[in-house]
Amino acid sequence: MAKVPSPCIDVCKFKRAGHCIGCSMTKAQKSLFKELKKDKHRLAFIDMLRSQQADLGKYTHWDAAYAKKLKKKKIKLVWDKDKAA
């Protein structure tokens, strides 16, 4: 099975107080995600990121864009952090 892909959706414009307008990650968070090797840690990061998106607002597009990326890579994720990809 492929590892959990980055939540980046290839927009990469840091115009919202240092947060990307595509995925809400900061540059530091993007670097941190790349260092995560275990899927459980990557899933936990994505759970954190989804909470961050909800707090920041204006990220309703991300779920669909990330789902499209996963489908292209033929990866099925369960959003519950206790379940594996």
From TrEMBL:
Output the superkingdom of the source species: Bacteria
Q: Which InterPro entries match?
A: DUF1289 (IPR010710)
Q: Name one Pfam family in it.
A: DUF1289
| Name this protein carries in UniProt | DUF1289 domain-containing protein
